[in-house]
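Sample A.
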Amino acid sequence: MNAIALTIAGSDSGGGAGIQADLKTFSALGVYGTSVITALTAQNTRGVSAIHDVPPAFVAAQMEAVFSDLAVDAVKIGMLSRAPVIEAVADGLDRHKAKNIVLDPVMVATSGDRLLDGAAIEVLRSKLIPRAALITPNLPEAAALLGVGLAVGETEMRAQAERLIADGARAVLIKGGHGKDAESVDLLVDRSGVTRLAAKRIATKHTHGTGCTLSSAIAAGLAKGEPLGGAVRAAKDYVTAAIAAADRLRVGQGHGPVHHFQAWW
């Protein structure tokens, strides 16, 4: 039987992030992808020009349709722009006893456009973070979740991840892609310790959708039965290769997408 993963996220009309990136990633990694759309964005490689939120009741209806028919092995959660939608998602996860939940706390697009209502951050912290097997904040997202400044260096990254665990997270992958060092270092932190994952920083502006792609790649690994550490390592390798090949795509005039199918095209 094929592994099945569900993405609960916003749609990117430009195809580089959100639902579109998640489904491409699931497909590239041999997992059947399903989706629940939480918001529509008018978006391209240059930015987000409009957001249309999906009503919470319809988000719940989509979740009911998927879970009532398909055996979902893992769930990736991305853009949830308003508190009522977050609450609807949390209720649906509980009702259907969802497993292997990967939460990417999407707050700001690569272009700098804000995607999460500030009032919704506390609801995200209380309703979804404790339900997730893993959360995957980048440096600005971790700082926003904690109400602190941006982490500088791995010591501060680890400290912020540990604070998130103290606040209820089970495991945290804090991502160092916004750093300035020669290596892009992510830290996987849980109550048993820290795993350092490093890759050479790639000189390209085409990084649209990297966070979505990483979190959905982790969910794909969990859906196939991989342990968390193995799923994270494989996802890091996949995203690194997709970034390295991004310049080959030549999509759009701004921050282009990573190359989800670089191994096949």
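Sample B.
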Amino acid sequence: MSKTYNLEPISQSLQTAKTVLILLPQNPNLDTVAAGLALYLSLKKNSNLSLTIGCSTPMTVNFNRLFAVDKIKSHIGNQNLVIEFDYPEDSIEKISYDKDSQKCYITIEPKSGMNPLDPQSVKYSYTGSSADIIFVIGARTPEDLGALYQEEKKLLDNKTKTLVNLSHLDKNAQFGTVNIYDPTASSCSEITTSVLQGLSLTIDADIATNLLAGIEANTNNFTSPNVTADTFTLIAQLMKLGAKKGYIPQSPVPQMPQPFRPGLSQPLRQQPLPNRMPPAPFSSPKPAMPAVPPSVQSQVIPQPTTPMPSPDWLKPKVVKSSQI
């Protein structure tokens, strides 16, 4: 049985909410992104909520196989239109606007002698989000959101909003109005799985695959010490729901070669060290010469000599038979 958290405040807020905002910290890991996307997909499948998921830093190639990763936005504001343009300082005389029942007119008047505004330099963007429920996934403090916190500080600091702080990281600031904080969990994806089950939200094969990929990544394929029996229970449930194990391959951890140890059935193969000179070929030791007695060392031992050939030995010879 999976862990249970106090989800009643979230359940009540979802009954009346119209807009939901899911925020990820800057430079998130795969587990955080997977958990946020799983929550996004599940809420989208189970309701008619207006959903936005955002992260201040762009997604890297490591996340490109996660389902719905293209839905993550770097700017989440949708209330206030911001007009940006290049223009020298102190060159504007005044900015005025006029409106009627259908249109609004903005007039930018340059100072005398200054060039008019170049329309090619005008850019448009939005700030100011509106949300009934805000989920912050995998952050210790709101400041971990980076630029999104600066842009949406007014919204995030509004205590009348339901702000859900979902995290397993240590030293969490408990900054939410609802804190789903579990430092004993292996990952944010493990907590999110329990939250989706507790809220009776649908988990299909894509959502389950995202969640399993997050757990795999944050536990180094289930080998880290924070993996518990609860973790394996959720893994089994996700696989029954269609999760693909190993959907995002993990980089293997390099292993150092081990020397042979007595008692093993076979010696472990050891890699040769670089730049090592090859060993000299084996050769049998030469027998030691017997020591020469001192009485013999002074004697001159004559050496056998080879007789010198005759001077005409290279000349051709005529063989004569004695019978002719």
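B remarks: The two ends are 124 Å apart (CA to CA). The mean pLDDT is 82.
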